[in-house]
Design a protein that fits this description.
The complex is a heterotrimer of chains A (292), B (237) and C (338). Helices cover 39% and strands 27% of the residues of chain B. Chain B has 237 residues and is α/β, with parallel strands linked by helices. Chain B has a domain at 5-91 and 155-230: P-loop containing nucleotide triphosphate hydrolases (Rossmann fold), CATH 3.40.50.300. Chain C has helices at 4-10, 13-16, 25-45, 48-74, 81-98, 103-125, 130-149, 151-157, 178-202, 204-214, 216-221, 226-252, 262-275, 282-300, 304-318, 323-336; strands spanning 163-164, 254-255. In chain C, helix 5 (81-98) crosses helix 12 (226-252), helix 9 (178-202) packs antiparallel against helix 12 (226-252) and helix 13 (262-275) crosses helix 14 (282-300). Classes of the chains: A mainly alpha (292), B alpha/beta (237), C mainly alpha (338). Chain C: Its main location: membrane.
Chain lengths: 292, 237, 338
């Protein structure tokens, strides 16, 4: 029983990170109708930035918040420089843009910081959380920080004017312009926020998976699985999907015999395929697929 | 005295296709003007041109201030509320949020809250449905919501694109009464595009008939309504 | 910077297919003949290592052609073809090691396996469209190495150790080196696949695919079974990628997990875009970049080739929306003017 609870909790810890990435994916998906394949790489490069700050002697928390800010600006810049000019371009052009971004970020990280694995500090250490053997302090921090972040985002979208304007611009850009919303700015804001969320996820998961240019590929896969499970268009669904996927992954790894750590990625893939085959609109989403 | 809204020599394009050919029109402050004509004549395009939502050349001015060339958002800030075809309702958002979106360009917090209450007084059905998703409203209710949303801007000019589309005759009647009130009581000038020419001519003071992207004729609404020739060739009733 | 207003028409895949608009027929024929002559006689003048590089180039061209066929005919994009490439490579290696089957015969078997895998994966995945589909295929690419390393398959795949394959010898006592023989084998397969691709695009099936790419709703109204065609074309494309993978196993004589990461899938995509989306001859140009850019760039600094490829993609996006095809069209117009 204790094992079950413990594994569920550490599943939730990973799941919180998947939830963040899934949410970042869904945010971009809702604002520009495309999935950002480079989302993981953006998070990775932000994490490297934080690592570099700490190497230079900046303490953890100032580095943490400065990174979030810089990631936000970077997201806005990516929108302005790369994707705004492509706004009316066909899907393939967008896809090429995402792939270009992916390759450049991945490559630049390798060029600047090389491809060796680097340790990343834990903000609160890894001692048992409040003396409990069920969950470590870092896992508790992963859950806690992500949930605070997600709750703040919820408040922002639900109860502020800009949040409302962003939702309106995402659902019906043309009508949004007709009530005076500067939709271009909302898209930039969406990019910035998605990038910042990714940075948080990256900095929280980096101590666990270690820092290197390809660290986010697997996490992105789980984030995508979570987003698909949540229906791709529902932010709440993405978060729920992330937590579910995290718990599912951990429980299968623990309790199904003959399944170890190496099953993780195939499992995520199987999950994506299963959801698409059985419940293509996800557990929480509206219609996302094109029936023909 | 120059007109309240004045459009001169508008050419508008969808890609390579020219939809308006040197169209000019003007309307006086505080009036209701209607644009009539067959499907595809260029009525909707004219409204879109005024809001700079389509590539347009020519000049448009509001209160003597040039608005052509400005961004849609800026034109809205200047007090032009455009209710597009299909009403532009944010169907996944609540009625309350839709109203707040209408006031997006305003910053007077108190005034916005007051106006929301005013809208609820004027459209009691919206108050009942205030936290409901707008998409669950009936067509008539959504049209009321669209008008209310436009009023939240405290507009000088309201552009309405086929407000009667898809509504039951009784609802249309009610809607046009409300539009008359809005015009009289709130002093909002209204430019309305309508398929239902008979009805539009009743509340309008001035009418333009558009054919193939040009003004085919214009005049006082009463005169147009009585001109059998125009009725038969352009308005089809 | 490109003219944004025009991009939508210029990069539209429909502009990229059929393959030969604007290219004068005579010019086309001359170029094809010259190219074939160069391809046939090159090994006679090149060192064995360079012949090997050219073999790799043709193998990548076949894999990129698989993508071109998919995107050019149905508008779907895959970032997961490294998976099918891997299936082909392992099929060939395992068959060679376990059964002693002739290496040429491993190719159709690899194609079959690739087709089945593509069909099975395509069936659920093709419910997604556009970038979401690309993302799903990307998930496949990311998971592929882990799948290969799974305990269940380890006995067959050799896990991280990989598998060694014997080098085929030139048969019938032909007076050419083994490398040259492999090159000619690859060239022959490549020409066959190319002709197959051309005829597929021009066949009834191809037309049905074009119809569904341009307007899926109308196509289904006309009785084209859209889901089936999409899945079939995905399967065919996977089969071709699988053939390329099998050839690579035979040519490199070694199959290992690290060769089939998502980087391979992305490289193939870059090759397609750079060559001109949907333009089959562009596969050769794209493959040249994929093979030779890393040789040069990574010699300068490890990881530089990724940046170069990213930069190439941006170049295509903003300056040359149709990639190499655009240059070819321009060249042929220059010659046509004479």
């Amino acid at each position: 029983m204790e094992l079950l609870i413990g594994q569920t909790l550490s599943g939730l810890a990973n799941g919180a990170i998947y939830a963040c990435i899934a949410l970042a994916l869904v945010m971009i998906y809702k604002t520009i109708d495309h999935l950002n394949i480079a989302q993981g790489e953006m998070a990775m490069i932000s994490t490297f930035f934080a690592w570099q700050l700490m190497e230079w002697g900046v303490p953890y928390w100032p580095a943490f918040f400065l990174t979030i800010f810089v990631a936000f600006c970077g997201g806005v810049a990516i929108d302005r420089v790369l994707f705004r000019p492509l706004a009316k371009a066909p899907v393939l052009t967008h896809l090429a843009g995402f792939v270009a971004l992916f390759m450049i970020l991945n490559s630049v990280a390798g060029l600047v910081w090389d491809f060796t694995i680097k340790p990343f500090p834990y903000p609160f250490g890894t001692s048992p959380f409040l003396g409990s053997s069920l969950i470590s302090t870092h896992q508790a921090a992963m859950i806690g920080i992500s949930m605070v972040l997600l709750f703040l985002l919820y408040l922002f979208f639900q109860f502020t004017r800009i949040g409302l304007a962003m939702r309106a611009a995402a659902t019906l850009p043309e009508s949004a312009r007709l009530v005076g919303i500067r939709t271009g700015r909302m898209v930039s804001l969406g990019w910035g926020m998605a990038s910042a969320i990714g940075a948080v996820a990256g900095m929280l998961i980096a101590p666990v998976v270690f820092l290197e240019p390809n660290m986010m590929a697997g996490i992105l896969l789980y984030g995508f699985a979570a987003a698909v499970l949540g229906g791709l268009s529902s932010p709440a669904g993405a978060v729920a999907g992330g937590l579910l996927v995290g718990v599912f992954e951990n429980l299968v790894g623990t309790f199904v015999p003959g399944v170890g750590h190496e099953i993780k990625l195939p499992l995520a893939l199987a999950l994506i395929i299963a959801v698409l085959a059985l419940k293509p609109n996800g557990l929480f989403g509206r219609k996302i697929t094109q029936r023909v | 005295m120059s007109a309240f809204l004045e459009a001169k020599d508008l050419d508008a394009f969808y890609g390579q296709v020219q939809a308006l050919h040197g169209l000019s029109l003007s309307m006086e402050r505080g009036t209701i003007t209607t644009l009539l004509g067959a499907n595809g004549a260029g009525k909707t395009t004219t409204l879109r041109a005024i809001c700079n939502m389509i590539r347009t050349s020519g000049t448009i001015s509001l209160n003597g201030q040039r608005i052509s060339g400005r961004s849609t958002e800026r034109i809205v800030e200047m007090g032009v509320a455009h209710v597009p075809q299909g009403r532009g309702t944010f169907t996944t958002l609540s009625v309350d949020e839709n109203l707040r979106l209408g006031a997006m360009t305003r910053t007077d917090h108190r005034g916005i809250e007051d106006d929301i209450e005013k809208m609820f007084a004027r459209f009691p059905i919206l108050k009942k449905r205030r936290s409901q998703q707008a998409g669950t409203l009936s067509g008539g209710e959504q049209q009321m919501l669209a008008v209310a949303r436009a009023l939240m801007l405290r507009p000088q000019l309201m552009l309405l694109d086929e407000p009667s589309f898809g509504l039951a005759p009784l609802v249309v009647q009610e809607l046009f009464e409300i539009l008359g009130q809005v015009n009289r009581d709130d002093g909002v000038s209204i430019l309305v595009v309508e398929q239902n020419a008979q009805l539009a001519l009743k509340i309008a003071t001035k009418a333009y008939v558009i054919a193939s992207g040009r003004i085919a004729m214009s005049g006082a609404a009463e005169e147009i309504a009585q001109d059998d020739e125009v009725r038969k060739s352009y308005l089809g009733y | 910077m490109m003219d944004i207003g025009n991009t939508s028409t210029r990069t539209d895949p429909s502009a990229a297919i059929p393959a030969r608009p604007g290219i004068g027929a005579r010019f086309n024929v001359i170029v094809t003949i010259v190219l074939l002559l160069v391809l046939v006689f090159a090994p006679a003048f090149a060192k064995n290592f360079f012949v090997f590089q050219m073999t790799l180039w043709l193998i990548y061209a076949i894999a990129i052609l698989a993508l071109n066929l998919l995107t050019g005919s149905s508008g779907q994009v895959s970032l997961g073809h490294s998976a099918f490439y891997a299936i082909g490579a392992y099929t060939a290696a395992i068959l060679l090691n376990e059964t002693g089957l002739n290496y040429v015969l491993t190719l159709p078997v690899a194609a079959l396996f690739g087709f089945v895998a593509g069909f099975l994966f395509g069936f659920p995945a093709l419910r997604l469209t556009g970038v979401a589909l690309a993302m799903a295929t990307f998930a496949l690419a990311v998971a592929t190495p882990a799948i290969i390393k799974l305990h269940v398959f380890e006995e067959w795949t050799g896990g991280v150790q990989g598998l060694f394959v014997d080098k085929p010898r030139a048969p019938f006592g032909l007076p050419i080196s083994d490398d040259a023989w492999l090159y000619y084998l690859t060239l022959a397969v490549g020409v066959l696949v190319f002709l197959f691709g051309l005829s597929l695009l021009n066949s009834r099936t191809g037309r049905a695919c074009l119809a569904l790419r341009d307007n899926p709703i109308a196509a289904s109204a006309m009785g084209v079974n859209v889901a089936l065609y999409k899945t079939l074309i995905f399967g065919v494309s996977a089969a071709i990628a699988s053939i390329a993978g099998a050839l690579s196993a035979i040519a490199i004589q070694f199959v290992a997990v690290d060769s089939f990461t998502f980087h391979l899938a992305i490289l193939l995509f870059v090759g397609m875009v750079v060559g001109g989306i949907g333009w089959l001859p562009g596969s050769l140009v794209g493959a040249a970049f994929v093979v030779f850019v890393p040789n040069i760039a990574d010699g300068i600094s490890q990881g530089l080739s990724g940046a170069v490829f990213g930069g190439l993609l941006l170049l295509v996006i903003f300056v040359l929306p149709n990639g190499a095809k655009q240059i070819a069209t321009w060249l042929s117009a220059q010659f046509g003017a004479k």
